[in-house]
């Protein structure tokens, strides 16, 4: 099938408040979000949905649907992110989390890693004061306090470097982020990847907290409570890179198998919490044990947390992650002690 995807930047510019707009024409915000991230392929969507989106954006279907374009991912060497919800280079990433789930640690780690890969990092400070941002800001090349200054600096460094830009949701709600992204595009600046976080945590309760996204990272309260970091939910986080035409078939196959295993493991875990391990059928014990091991493997020590954890940060190539996850799913670590899989790099 021809490679099709939504023109998300166009939607973002034309329909900033996409949640309300989608509802007003009878579309489910969750459906629109899944189309934007690629969780629902454009080729499988209803024609009426695409027509309604084109009408909202006041564009033609040819403008709304991009054909034959590839999507490039940024490899972070963080296992969970690269396997389940890769960053789309030049796209927008939304972090959905309540305070205390570790979104700032993940963002700080990304700044640390990507700066060393040659990216220039720029952070737009929120309007309110958040002392917990100090560690994050310490890893950033440029910190600005206004949209105007953000545009000037992005334009200045964007000609010679790929840019990582981050801002709090407070700037999304004012519409400033959408205006900035339009100005960046009109200025011809290439490859600005935007991260949107929510320091107040209100985004968790909304269907479409940031508008259209290329990548969504949904943080998980249960993983965070059990100190399984990074606490990014591998089942509900997603990315437009995961459309089949954009992704290596082996990656896609392992990602889907891993999600299936983890989904069933979570269902079984809820029973184990109530009845103990004897409360699940004998035929499911193997599934539970492998899911438990995969969940443990997906934890990872971060460089920026070395002082606090006493553990050396680890980087894992995507190819290694895929091979390791395949081994776990196929039973290659069944005899390995669970504790030895927690917070490691590769197998």
TrEMBL record:
GO terms for molecular function: ATP binding; proton-transporting ATP synthase activity, rotational mechanism. It is found in: Membrane. Signal peptide: none annotated. It comes from the Bacteria. Residues 246-331 form the ATP synthase A/B type C-terminal domain. It holds the Pfam family ATP-synt_VA_C. The keyword Nucleotide-binding applies. InterPro entries: ATP-synt_VA_C (IPR055190), ATPase_a/bsu_AS (IPR020003), ATPase_alpha/beta_chains (IPR050053), ATPase_F1/V1_b/a_C (IPR024034), P-loop_NTPase (IPR027417). GO terms for cellular component: proton-transporting ATP synthase complex. Keywords: ATP synthesis, ATP-binding, CF(1), Ion transport, Membrane, Nucleotide-binding, Translocase, Transport. Its main location: membrane. Belongs to the ATPase alpha/beta chains family. PANTHER family: ATP SYNTHASE (PTHR15184), ATP SYNTHASE SUBUNIT BETA, MITOCHONDRIAL (PTHR15184:SF71). This is F-type H+-transporting ATPase subunit beta.
């Amino acid at each position: 099938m021809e490679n099709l995807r939504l023109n998300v930047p166009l939607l973002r510019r034309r329909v900033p408040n996409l949640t309300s707009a989608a509802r007003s024409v009878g579309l489910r915000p969750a459906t629109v979000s899944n189309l934007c991230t690629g969780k629902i392929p454009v080729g499988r969507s209803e024609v009426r949905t695409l027509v309604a989106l084109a009408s909202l954006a006041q564009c033609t279907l040819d403008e709304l649907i991009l054909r034959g374009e590839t999507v490039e991912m940024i490899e972070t060497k963080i296992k969970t992110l690269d396997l389940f919800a890769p960053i789309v280079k030049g796209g927008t990433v939304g972090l959905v989390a309540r305070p205390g789930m570790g979104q700032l640690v993940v963002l700080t780690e990304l700044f640390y890693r990507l700066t060393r890969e040659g990216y220039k990092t720029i952070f737009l400070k929120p309007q309110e004061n958040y002392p917990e941002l100090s560690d994050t800001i310490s890893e950033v090349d440029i910190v600005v306090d206004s949209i105007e200054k953000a545009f000037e600096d992005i334009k200045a460094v964007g000609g010679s470097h790929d840019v990582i830009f981050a801002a709090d949701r407070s700037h999304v709600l004012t519409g400033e982020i959408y205006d900035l992204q339009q100005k960046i595009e009109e200025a011809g600046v290439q490859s600005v990847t935007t991260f949107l976080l929510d320091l107040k945590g209100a985004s968790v309760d909304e269907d479409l907290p940031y508008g259209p996204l290329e990548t969504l990272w949904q943080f998980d309260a249960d993983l965070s409570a059990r100190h399984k970091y990074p606490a990014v939910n591998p089942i509900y986080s997603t990315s437009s890179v995961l459309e089949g035409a954009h992704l290596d078939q082996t990656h896609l196959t392992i990602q889907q198998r891993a999600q299936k295993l983890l989904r069933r493991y979570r269902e079984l875990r809820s029973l184990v919490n109530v009845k103990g391990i004897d409360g699940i059928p004998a035929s499911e014990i193997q599934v539970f044990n492998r899911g438990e091991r995969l969940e443990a493997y997906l934890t990872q020590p971060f460089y920026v947390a070395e002082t606090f954890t006493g553990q050396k940060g680890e980087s894992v190539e995507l190819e290694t992650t895929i091979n390791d996850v395949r081994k776990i799913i196929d039973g290659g670590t069944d005899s390995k002690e669970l504790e030895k899989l927690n917070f490691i790099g590769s197998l």
